[in-house]
Design a protein that fits this description.
Keywords: FAD, Flavoprotein, Oxidoreductase. It comes from Neorhizobium phenanthreniclasticum. The protein folds into three domains: 45 residues, Uridine Diphospho-n-acetylenolpyruvylglucosamine Reductase, domain 2; 114 residues, 2-Layer Sandwich (Uridine Diphospho-n-acetylenolpyruvylglucosamine Reductase, domain 3); 112 residues, CO dehydrogenase flavoprotein, C-terminal domain (Enolase-like, domain 1). The radius of gyration is 20 Å and the shape is globular. The strands form four sheets. It has a five-stranded antiparallel β-sheet. By secondary structure, the chain is of the alpha+beta class. Helix 5 runs antiparallel to helix 8 and helix 10 runs antiparallel to helix 11. Strand 4 and strand 5 form a beta hairpin. Bound molecules: flavin-adenine dinucleotide. Flavin-adenine dinucleotide binds next to strand 2, helix 6, helix 7, helix 8 and strand 10.
């Protein structure tokens, strides 16, 4: 199918883009990499009268690293996030997750902001943002605001974005130098969206006991699910083999996926435990290596 007709606008600055969005209101939609919105237009699932193309907003294509934070502009392509040395150094989990998005061509077009605004429940970028306590920077005509990733995602493809607002960047706390991290996904074919994805971040103290542990799951709930692990993995716990099994089993019991046309819920739940186990073992090994 072909899209319904629309007026095409290609603003050169963020202010101009915000002005167009304010002028046309709900009749306008932004497009970034077009990897998700293009098919929606073609299938006429979206019929904006005005399409606001963000691809000339070079001011939103950046990676900045400070002592505590990594900031990535919304128009930064997945490929750049996956390969930039400054992301690898400050947030290797983000780089590793970006490298698993779709295929090479998709990563060269798709953007960080587009992925977050689209909010597919199985997408990598929302999962990493929620796990690592990232904050999204949004701009509208009334100004700038920040929102925690955990509050931004409301439901399947539904986010806390007001009419006329754009995602402009994401602020990620840098990973501690001795952090253990892992990103694992199971998909039907390489490059497909995840059936289940798991992201893990942990630190160990000097004695090798658990400091912090964060585990988040994608594909098993309407939004990325960050687990409350206080009952099974309190700080100071000694890492035994049985510990990894117990946390993985807890993860599987915590999810309540729904049946979809292609994937039964029971399958997603069955994949969750072994995938979490693999991610925890990888993160633990990385943290031990970094602390050695
Ligand atoms: C075959 C295929 C496989 C894929 N596999 C994966 C995968 O494994 N994992 C994954 O995560 N994604 C996957 N994708 C999607 C891809 O990553 C997209 O790039 C991403 O979902 C959206 O980014 P985009 O820049 O293309 O956004 P677009 O498609 O341009 O826009 C998506 C939505 O976000 C809005 N939007 C865009 N930018 C902004 C902004 N700055 N502020 C506010 N709203 C904005 C648009 O209005 C639209 O509603 C796949 C796509 C294809 C075609």
């Amino acid at each position: 199918m072909k899209p319904a007709s629309f007026d095409y606008h290609r603003p050169q600055t963020l202010d101009a883009a915000l002005g167009l969005l304010a002028r046309f209101g709900e009749r306008a939609k932004p497009i970034a990499g077009g990897q998700s919105f293009g098919p929606m237009l073609n299938m006429r699932l979206a019929r904006p009268e005005h399409l606001i193309d963000l691809n000339d907003l070079v001011e939103l294509d950046f990676i900045r690293v400070s002592d505590a934070m990594l900031e990535v502009g919304a128009m930064t392509r997945h490929h750049r996030v996956a390969t930039a040395p400054e992301v690898a150094r400050s947030h290797p989990l983000l780089a590793a997750a970006a490298a698993t998005i779709g295929h090479y061509a998709i990563r060269h077009r798709g953007t960080l902001g587009g992925s977050l605004a689209h909010a597919d429940p199985a997408a990598q970028m929302p999962l990493v943002a929620v796990l690592g306590g990232a904050r999204l920077v949004l701009h509208g005509l009334s100004g700038r605001r920040e929102i925690a990733a955990g509050d931004f995602f409301k439901s399947v493809m539904t986010v806390d974005l007001a009419e006329g607002e754009l995602v402009t960047s994401v602020l990620y706390p840098r990973l501690p130098i001795n952090a253990g991290w892992a990103f694992e996904l199971f998909s039907r074919r390489r490059g497909d969206f995840a059936v289940v994805a798991v992201a893990v971040l942990l630190t160990l103290d000097d004695a090798g006991r658990l400091g912090d542990l964060h585990v988040a799951l994608g594909g098993v709930a309407p939004v990325p699910l960050r687990l409350d692990l206080s009952a099974v993995a309190p700080s100071g716990v000694i890492m035994e083999d049985t510990w990894i099994e117990a946390v993985s089993e807890f993860a599987a019991q915590s999810v309540a996926p729904e049946d979809t046309v292609q994937i039964p819920a029971v399958f997603r739940r069955e994949v969750t435990a072994p995938l979490t186990q693999k991610a925890l073992a990888t993160a633990l090994a990385r943290s031990r290596k970094a602390s050695a």
